Queue: 3 jobs
Job 1
Amino acid sequence: MAISVDDREHARSIWEKVVDRQFAVLSDPGARVIRSYGLLHPAGGVDGGDIALDTTLLIDVDGRERWRRTSQTLPDLPSAEQILARIRETTAR
């Protein structure tokens, strides 16, 4: 699932057009969820507004963070294969 400070339509268009991936998108304009994970980059947006850091998180069923990767750009996000490999590593422990 993707979480974005942008409104739902803008966030979805970014995921589909820029990175050619389709995810469910949680629109979080107030950044409440993003802030709770420590992923807010204050005043980093083009318009001077807050933006979320491009981050992939692996959260286990108990809600604990098991892995985090912060990317520099949207295309730098890990591939599905990389994420699946990390899930396998984490669950094998």
Job 2
Amino acid sequence: MKRLDFLKILALSPLALAAMKLKELEPITNGLTSTQKMPVLFLGHGSPMNAIEENEFVKGFRDIGKDIPKPKAILMISAHWETKGTFVTAMAKPRTIHDFGGFPQALFDVQYPAPGSPELANETKSIIKKTQVGLDDKWGLDHGAWSVIKNLYPKADVPIIQMSIDYTQGGQYHYDLAKELAILRNKGILIVGSGNMVHNLGMVAWDKLNADSYGYDWAIEANEKMKKFILTDNHQPLINFKSQGKAFDLAIPTPEHFLPLIYSLALKEKNEKITLFNDKAIGGSLTMTSIKID
């Protein structure tokens, strides 16, 4: 920098300096310019083995990846990141987290080196008014994120951030919080909830995992009721999932796998359609039902 230019900068008022700072940030905000509205997904992620196996559910994820516009970035709400408070991952290179046990070494060997997006993390933090959002530099991508996104974008060439689930809050809180994310859909961001509508690992029929569409009566009942509420835009019973009777209680013994669905549904607009895919029960007490909103 020339001495004269330096002296000119020193002479600038605080207001001018602030303007210069905004000017420097323009390339960042320009990266999130308006686009056509992106769809929203809820993915029933099931077993992390879906990251390395070939089956009908993997094909369903892959087909959806081909069916939607390629996003600028992904904001993922995964069942496997619960925190007190709300956080978003803000590192440039999120690590691949192998947050499971008892699986083949081949699964632990999988790396999904998608970049992060500090830019999107800061944008997300700035648009949410309901709560203070923290920027996290330690988490990364858990298997609720990478085991399914790997099938949509196998080249790991789409930046991803994760938003945590505040375990201290109920369904209505998460639904209202999710609505504040809607603006990101118009900036090329694919918002994905990853969990399972019916998820009771304590009651899995391990000997029936390979049986086609095997579900206990209560699991089928809960899943059918959930789908009816979803397809009729009747979200309140789903928000109040703890008040829907025994089948729901068995289907949702803990809320972390169900709440990502609430995030996805909150983003649906009246004129948008819902497409169900991977709509099958497995192992008696799990369902892979997944949703596309567009």
Job 3
Amino acid sequence: MTAPLVASALPLPLLRRGKVREVYEVDPDTLLLVASDRVSAFDVVLREPVPHKGAVLTQLSAFWFQQLAAVIPSHFLSADADEIVERIPSLEPLRPALTGRAMLVRRTTPVPFECVVRGYITGSAWAEYQRSGTLAGEPLPGGLVESARLEPPIFSPATKAEVGHDENVTLARLAQALGRSLAERLKQASLGLYEAGRTFAAPRGIIIADTKFEFGTTPDGRLLVIDEILTPDSSRFWPADRYRPGKSQPSFDKQPLRDYLAGLKQEGQWDGDPPPPPLPPEVVTARHRCRGAACCAPTMRYALEA
């Protein structure tokens, strides 16, 4: 078995090391993203890597970027290691480490907000609703239960915090920061991508409960969806045949990790800030319930491609 990749080191200029990915400059117009096996939750990077996670994120993103290209174009160029090495011959000795987890993309200027779409009320949205009946301070209908379907889906942007935790914000605040025109474009693009994604996934037995998108602009003003799209890191996927509103749902994503850490927070064993607590092996793999990112996401892709 190939050892997990904690961090990549390529003979290219390193522009950024994020929670999960390294971003390298290929030329002024092109970047190379390499997804490591690092995992984060509650905006904190955990010490333990999840084997194969980077390949899962990259290949699912490649699938969705191409599947949803008619909704809005993306920065995606290629996730094929042979094509990448042909474009950048100096990477030939590193081909095994890049296979599956590297993506060649167009360079954009990132929009400094995450564009979240919620089709069901869960996670931080459910926690806020329980406290105050709101989402990002805006009132929601009364009487909702955990995991209830939201119709229509709600556009719920969030800040992108380099340090600390992201914060849900209103559309009005997004418009104040970016201008009303761009804010509306982001909302429509996000809702369109989510609707197309969940429509595609539904007959294949998968509920896309919520997701976040990131966008960037090109020098000529085009809006592109960037980073990753509809992956177990950016979304919640539920098996439709096990969906039962009124409680938390089994997941094809990193929910087992979130649940474990949330339990530690409730017990006062972790305050939610770095340094993170150590993870037991069963949480890293989450294979015994077929719910972890490393084991279930490939199965999910096979279902989506069927």
